[in-house]
Structures are given as structure tokens and as C-alpha cells.
Amino acid sequence: MISIFNAEQWSCHHFKNCFFGDTRRTDRVIEVAADMARCSGKSIALSCQGNEAIVEGAYRLIRNDNISPEVIRASGFQYTAELALPYAEILAIDDTT
Questions:
Q1: Is the four-CA dihedral 17, 21, 29, 72 of positive or negative sign?
Q2: pLDDT per residue as tens digits for the range 66-86
């Protein structure tokens, strides 16, 4: 299992199956997701640690019509399903307090 504490590895495994017509877009999704995972709950600017070029790249990714949130979600869902395959039962515990 991949740990969120290794953001690059986690991001690569979750989003490597995304395809947006150009592998550079997939690479950017992986990079942005890793940056955001390292700084969970923070803004994009804080996640990019003040590097203006990385911030601009992240915002260009978000504005790009070739990037589909559905494709990003599907890739993460697919990887999660692959991780779950060996288990006969999985508990989804929720606390709504």
C-alpha cells in the first residue's frame, strides 16, 4: 500500500492512468496533486511553496479545457478499487458527529 506520506509516489499511483491527449498534462496533474497532498488543506499558492512558476502551472492546469475532473476522479477510483481487490471485506467507517 502507498502512504500519503510519500506524496509523489501516492500521486503517481493514483493519477498515472489519466490521459488528457498529452502525457505532459498527466505529468502536471501528478505534480499538482503531490504538491497539494504535501500541504493538505492549504491553498494552491501555499502548496506550491511560493514558486510562482509552479503556481501559474497549477492554475493553467485548472483552466485547461482538456483537463477533465471526471478523468481525474476515475483514475483515483480505479486505483482504489485495485487496492481493494485482495480483501474480502472492507469497512467504510463514518462519524457524522
A1: negative
A2: 998 999 999 989 998 999 999
Residue whose cell numbers read 474480502? 88
- Grid cell, residue 24, equals 505532459
Q: Are 40 and 34 in contact (CB under 8 A)?
A: no
The per-residue pLDDT for range 16-75, each reduced to its tens digit, is 888 888 899 999 999 999 999 988 888 888 888 888 999 999 999 989 999 989 999 999
**Separation of alpha carbons 97 and 95, rounded Å:** 6
| Start-to-end CA span in the chain (Å) | 29
Whose CA is closest to 31, among 48, 43, 46?
48
Residue 23: all three cell numbers together: 502525457
Q: Residue 88: what are its φ and ψ, rounded to 5°? A: -75, -30
